[in-house]
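pinned: reference chain
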Amino acid sequence: QVQLQESGPGLVKPSQTLSLTCTVSGASITDNDYYWNWIRQPPGKGLEWMGGISASATTYYSPSGKSRTSVSRDTSKNQITLQLSSVTPEDTAVYYCNANRFWKNYWGQGTQVTVSS
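pinned: its structure tokens
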């Protein structure tokens, strides 16, 4: 069973860079059957896919956030990371790590990030 655990700061100041880590257990992030994603949900809004990374380390980004978003990985720690630069209060959201394997999706519990001075 794949398990995902997000971690990172709960509060970030405007203009700073947000960094989140997803620690994966139960599967290898280099397993070709999986795609690894970051998805967020702002308060009162729906889910928003931000970007992802494949087992071969190819990255994919939402066009709306591509200029500020970076997804990377650490294979030695089996972790996926998200960096979002120049954050504003509009980036306040619950951020989720997601794994997609064929028709199945696995989710972390999510981590609340608030952007405020």
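why pinned: The chain has a mean pLDDT of 96. The CA atoms of residues 94 and 112 lie 4 Å apart.
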